Amino acid sequence: MVSLWEIAGLAVVASAIGAVGGLGGAVLLVPALVLAGLDPEAAAPLGLLAVAAGSLAASPTHLEQGLVHHRLGLTLEVAGGSFAVLGALVSEAVSDTALTWVLVVTALVAAVAGGFRQGLRNRPMSAFSAEPPGEWPGTLGGAYSRDGHVVPYRARRLLGGLGLVSAAGAVAGLAGVGGGFLKTPAMSEVMHVPVKVAAATSTFTVGITAVAGLAVFAGQGRIDLVPGASAVVGAMVGGAVGARLQDRLSPVATRRFLAIVLVAVAAALIVQV
Amino acid sequence: MSVPPEPRRRRQSRLIAFLRIAGAAAFVLAVVGVCVPGNAGRSAALLAIGVLVLAPVVRTGWLAVRWWRRGDRGFALVAASVLAVVATGALVAGV
User: Fold this and answer.
1) How far is B19 from chain A (nearest CA, A)?
2) pTM for this predicted structure
3) Hey, where are the domains in chain A?
4) How many CB pairs under 8 A join A and B?
5) N or C: which end of chain A has fewer CB within 10 A?
6) What are the tens digits of pLDDT across the range B33-66?
7) Is A59 an interface residue toward B (CB < 8 Å)?
């Protein structure tokens, strides 16, 4: 039997990591709860509650820093969310083990791509020094503040990003995970969006994904209220801490942190096989 | 003569305020849900989860309306589409 304190404590850690890397954290929390002795059927809704709570807690800090690109996040979420629904509909026809291995390989490829990349793609430009950090209306571009300088950026390879997020959504729907751990690398490594913006934007969109999943669990009567509240308390603390921690990390450190977490995610997925 | 404030610096201040209030409400309700036994605690926990579910939906709807009013119609439709996808997913699941 897992105590409420244990649930809250694990949610703090998973949500803090999730907020730094834009992962959501369910992919870490659910295996941790199962390893602690909770039934997987009960752990999955707690994972989604933690994702929703962590996303909400991190949002004000990310918005104040001008890191969230709503237009990019919602554009990708249309594709990812649609394919997640389709994936969930056909999930019973596909082997869980095969899907998990697909996720493991994807997480490891993303970890290698981000972790070993040197340097920064987006550089500060003095012409944009008066530009407030944030997204630019009507575009998939924007600017963010790094070390006191304004760094403009623009999402590239939209079709590639949409394709990858769609595939991630389908796999996520098939496997019953949120897919946040695939969205941040897709935005950062494929679309060349700064990793901090990608992580903050992903933290926003995983909150939406969690809502859809929670609706499903509520319909199935699988949300246990008191343990759920305990996960919410922990995840809100973790989400707020993670958002502030991300502010202190450099983009390169954030990318390396994300790579390490992706390897941990792959390990957590292997444990579940 | 003082320089007028950059309007885009405050463009999401209401959204930030809303998210702070929603977050604080969800946290307090969840703490009550954990600490208070019986139906009162369970009701508070249920309300906390309700706040968590509604916050991103309201946020996305707010963005859709704001973008539509400001002529950013393409992205307003994208935001509305996300809400439609979420609603479809919930309906397909039988809620």
Assistant:
1) 6
2) 0.87
3) 4-272
4) 157
5) N
6) 999 999 999 999 999 999 999 999 999 999 999 9
7) yes
